[in-house]
Amino acid sequence: MTEIQELKEMLLASQSTIVITGAGISNSSGIADMEKMNVTTTLETSLEPLVRMHPEHSYKLLRESFLKAMFEKGPSLSHRKLTELEEEGLVDGIITTNIDHLHSLAGSQNVAEIQGSYAINRCSKCKVHEDGVDIWNKGKAPRCSICNGIMLSFPVYSHVGVYEPAMKRANQWISQADLVLVVGSKGNYGSYLNNLSSSAKIIQINPHPTQFDSIAVLNIREKADTVFSQL
């Protein structure tokens, strides 16, 4: 039996499959791992004082390094395939550390973005929320419709914190899972895994070694798109 066949059979046999994704699933959409991004660009687009001081400069850098890929290239084959699996009832939820909102843009309904995303935004002055990614696709730094303050995404105003409503969903979903599919993730911010049943099985899709290697019942050493194109 091939690894792809084994993956298919385990998905079909599962009563509750939860998917955990990390940066690897978005690489083919043109979004680089955080550690591979230019340090100066990362600081100027993610540190709140710098963003507020030079909003248009920060936005321009963000557009070139992140937003263009997010909006123009969009979800990868793997993002779209996970949406199909959800629609077929084979995936119950997706837990991700990614802030690119690509799972939702692909059409997935049950997504826990545990580090938030550019769909969660708050005014730097009056603190009003204006959620949704569209405000980042207008060619200039988004401004508050009420006070004209600079809008900041959750990863910026939380200083790369944890989005608690999403973490709550992650804890609930993982406690009910009998199969966990880990795709392009190193397991960061994975405290929710403490709620995983000891009888649950883990499958990992990642060309690189991670902390999941020793606990996965199946390690598929391929890029996500390569695997999902065969499902």
Polypeptide structure, described:
- It is a single chain.
- By secondary structure, the protein is α/β, with parallel strands linked by helices.
- The chain is 35% helix and 13% strand.
- It contains nine helices and eight strands.
- It has helices at 3-13, 39-46, 48-53, 55-73, 77-87, 102-106, 154-157, 164-176, 224-228; strands at residues 17-21, 93-96, 111-113, 121-123, 151-153, 179-183, 201-205, 218-220.
- The strands form two sheets. A six-stranded parallel sheet has the order 3-2-1-6-7-8, sandwiched between helices. A two-stranded antiparallel sheet has the order 4-5.
- Helix 2 (39-46) packs across helix 4.
- The longest helix is centred in the N-terminal third of the chain and has 19 residues, at 55-73.
Summarize the model shown.
The chain is α/β, with parallel strands linked by helices and 231 residues long. The protein is built from 9 helices and 8 strands.
Report the span from N to C terminus.
14 Å
Strand order of the largest sheet: 3-2-1-6-7-8
Overall geometry: elongated
Helix content: 25-40%
Count up the helices. 9
Instruction: Look at the structure and give the mean pLDDT.
Output: 95
Main beta sheet strand tally, sense and closure: 6 strands, parallel
Order of helical and strand elements: HEHHHHEHEEEHHEEEH
Spans of at least 5 consecutive residues whose pLDDT stays below 50 are: none
In terms of structural class, how would the helical and strand content be classed? Answer: alpha/beta
Number of strands: 8
CA gyration radius, whole angstroms: 18 Å
Beta-strand content: 5-15%
